[in-house]
Amino acid sequence: MKHSSSFQQGIFYAFAAYFMWGILPLYWALITEINATEILMFRIILSLIFMIILIPITKQWNQLKGDIQQLIQTPKKLIIIVIAGYVVTLNWGIFIYAINENYVLQTSLGYYINPLVSIMLAMIFFKERFTRLEWCAIGLATIGVIYMTIKVGEFPFISLFLAFTFGIYGLLKKLVPLSAISSITIETFATTPMALLYLIFINHSHGLSIGMNSSTFWLIFSGIVTAVPLLSFSAAANRIPLSLIGFIQYVGPTLIFLNGIFVFKEAFNLDQFITFCFIWSGILIYVLSQVVKIRRKPNPLT
């Protein structure tokens, strides 16, 4: 019964994480009066502040100290985590920019493509072998990108940037596994000096765009908005197989896609629909390949 309860909790946390990520464009759309780069820098600093408050509440000081000691003893791992912090910062930045510039559908496309990019990176860096179905999935996604470039006349830079930065971030995190709280804290601690220097420079050169307005009010919550989905995802990963999380992850880009059409009213013509059909077909085949893998496992719930 205890295993069943933990499994159900894991599914709940996974859905909660991807639901929060899926509606994130609605949050960033509230912050229209502040420069996108400033938003990113404040997001980093406020995320660190939130984690510093959260750590004693969750009694994770010992875990954090142990993880920091491990990284100090292995400088290579420390460098990897610092790089990971800056890679995910690039991902956050382009996501905020895309929402502010009304490229919501491209962000959706990026996170649909992301799992396929991840398996491609695994092939390159971990020499993993892929099935014909996985190759077919990657091929269809590639055709979708090429079709969009030729027919829509728009190379999906934002989509691919989001997919590859998040894929590389996942790759780096696989090399140095840490708890979610330690990971977010260390990564934001590493990137906060850069954020502070940027804000000081901007303030001295022409002034910050924050002020007594609604955008600044909503920006205050960016640390919470950043950390909570990541913590929820970590809680899910500790309770259910990553293969199951792999299926649930499509909740996020699907919600972003629906937001793009129905909330942000982005144009969605036939050529864009065809592009997404290629991507969705690739995802369907990818999901099918994962089902086949799970069925071949002796114990599919491990």
TrEMBL record:
Q: Where in the cell is it found?
A: Cell membrane
Protein's name according to its UniProt entry: EamA family transporter RarD
Q: Taxonomic lineage of this organism?
A: Bacteria, Bacillati, Bacillota, Bacilli, Bacillales
Q: What is its main location?
A: membrane
Give yes or no: UniProt keyword Membrane. yes
UniProt family annotation: Belongs to the EamA transporter family.
The record's listing under Gene3D superfamilies reads: 1.10.3730.20
All residue ranges annotated as the EamA domain in the record: 10-149
- For this protein, the parts annotated as crossing the membrane are 12-30, 36-57, 78-97, 109-126, 133-150, 156-172, 184-204, 216-237, 244-264, 270-288
Database matches in InterPro entries: EamA_dom, EmrE-like, RarD
| UniProt keyword list | Cell membrane, Membrane, Transmembrane, Transmembrane helix, Transport
Organism's domain of life? Bacteria
Query: Per UniProt, what is the membrane topology?
Result: Multi-pass membrane protein
